[in-house]
């Protein structure tokens, strides 16, 4: 009998095209946590700098927001996708929970 693998629903939102590396400062973490808190409890927030120097500046910063549950993450991703932040259109999507849990932030 074949065993079906069931993926866990993601609790993590990936925000792209929000800021360039030069715009990351101490206030950004607090601002994102406060804004994302509108959709639920933020368990963890990671601002990751991609090492690809050929990518556009705004694509080099990935912001990962992990919520307490997947429903909160889904609501946040839907609400934030397409919103404007600092003159940019934010791309928000759910991120693979297994990858996030294992520290793989490159996908």
UniProtKB/TrEMBL annotation:
Residues 11-97 form the RRM domain. SUPFAM superfamilies: RNA-binding domain, RBD. Keywords: RNA-binding. InterPro entries: Nucleotide-bd_a/b_plait_sf, PUF60_regulator, RBD_domain_sf, RRM_dom, RRM_euk-type. This is RRM domain-containing protein. It comes from Plutella xylostella (Diamondback moth). The lineage of its organism: Eukaryota, Metazoa, Ecdysozoa, Arthropoda, Hexapoda.
């Amino acid at each position: 009998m074949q065993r079906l693998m069931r993926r866990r629903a993601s609790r993590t939102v990936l925000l792209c095209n929000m800021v360039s590396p030069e715009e990351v400062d101490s206030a950004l973490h607090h601002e994102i946590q406060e804004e994302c808190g509108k959709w639920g409890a933020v368990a963890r927030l990671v601002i990751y700098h991609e090492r690809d120097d050929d990518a556009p500046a705004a694509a080099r910063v990935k912001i990962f927001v992990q919520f307490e549950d997947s429903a909160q993450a889904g609501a946040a991703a839907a609400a934030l996708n397409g919103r404007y932040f600092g003159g940019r259109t934010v791309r928000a999507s759910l991120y693979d929970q297994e990858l996030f849990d294992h520290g793989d932030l490159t996908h």
